[in-house]
Amino acid sequence: MNSCLEAEHSPIFVNGPIIVGAGPSGLSVAACLSNRGVPSVILERTDCLASLWQKRTYDRLKLHLPKHFCELPLMKFPKNFPRYPSKQQFISYIESYAARFNIEPVFNQTVEKAEFDVVSGLWKVKTQDGVYTSKWLVVATGENAEPVVPDIPGLKNFTGPIVHTSAYKCGSEYANRKVLVVGCGNSGMEVCLDLCRYNALPHMVVRNPVHVLPRDFFGLSSFGIAMTLLKWFPLKLVDNLLMLLANSYLGNTDRLGLRRPKTGPIELKNVTGKTPVLDVGAISLIQSGQIRVTQAVKELTKKGAKFVDGQEMGFESIILATGYKSNVPDWLKVLKSYTNRYSS
Ligand SMILES: Cc1cc2nc3c(=O)[nH]c(=O)nc-3n(C[C@H](O)[C@H](O)[C@H](O)COP(=O)(O)OP(=O)(O)OC[C@H]3O[C@@H](n4cnc5c(N)ncnc54)[C@H](O)[C@@H]3O)c2cc1C
Ligand SMILES: *[C@@H]1O[C@H](CO)[C@@H](O)[C@H](O)[C@H]1NC(C)=O
Ligand SMILES: *[C@@H]1O[C@H](CO)[C@@H](O)[C@H](O)[C@H]1NC(C)=O
Ligand SMILES: *[C@@H]1O[C@H](CO)[C@@H](O)[C@H](O)[C@H]1NC(C)=O
Q1: pTM of the shown model
Q2: Mean pLDDT confidence for 187-213
């Protein structure tokens, strides 16, 4: 069946780069190329632009970083945007961006395989519908392509609903429910905050050390402060300063069950890719007891969880705030000498 299809449709030759993914990165590349008069084709698996933002984020989401750090090249955000634009504002900006540069991705095309053919000097990029070829391939599928679902013992035994944060929209259906939120990154913290606003009872699992910084210090963003200081001072010094400011602003988060890693927040991001949490209110709800912090889960049962400290608790729902991963290693076939870099 498949080989039949390929025989019928000869490869589509793209005069210019093939870009995989119509998120902010892919669109930026297409716009910059177009600005230099270079055509390109974007292949996108979903049926919309910036699908992570449109389909897989919660209603209340705002940009975590101040707007000037999130702007795409060649087009400013509208003047009336607040410092932290909402998800809807960001999406409308993305849509005007694509319109401005006449970018029309080919939708519903999931790239299943891409390999470089040394003989013809062309990339062959296979989707479920056919093959595209080009001299150049740009990978823009992001770090959030696939939800990570951890292998928690007993996960299948739990009888209530289990959703990943990529499918969480808002807390309205969780009112008065005991909810176990697994994970304490930005998504886990913000989902807990949202659940509280709908009178749910979130319990957040904190397994590993985590850096929490206030999103803003007296009207300045932590991220902005860090970026400015890094221009002048060594990384270790900036990290120490950030932790000093964070501790004076949020208090000792260790006492709340949120241990700080030994490595500073920016160094840790650089070395492991782990993003510090930028707090927008969850910490004060942990302090007031509305969000409970729990130990790691030992196993899930039909109606709840057993924790590593021996406690057992009932829950009605579970939300997995366990992050995302790239899908590039599954489809990009690269020369042997490059595989280590891509598969790690
Ligand atoms: C809750 C949340 C909040 C965030 N907040 C911020 C923020 O405030 N500021 C910030 O800078 N970043 C933020 N991020 C990070 C986010 O990764 C970036 O905002 C941005 O979306 C990255 O753009 P991208 O184009 O690299 O990837 P994505 O936006 O993930 O786009 C990748 C595209 O590739 C498509 N794709 C994936 N695999 C394939 C395939 N095999 N074939 C074809 N198409 C494929 C996807 O459908 C998607 O449309 C946030 C992320 C999350 C989850
Ligand atoms: C993509 O697929 C969806 C669902 O199958 C369909 O509704 C939509 O019309 C398709 N869009 C394009 C541009 O092919
Ligand atoms: C899940 O349920 C099965 C059948 O009831 C049981 O044998 C198994 O031990 C349970 N798993 C865990 C990790 O509790
Ligand atoms: C990030 O780490 C790399 C090596 O892992 C190092 O060369 C680089 O200087 C680091 N960047 C910063 C800002 O510390």
Answers
A1: 0.93
A2: 97
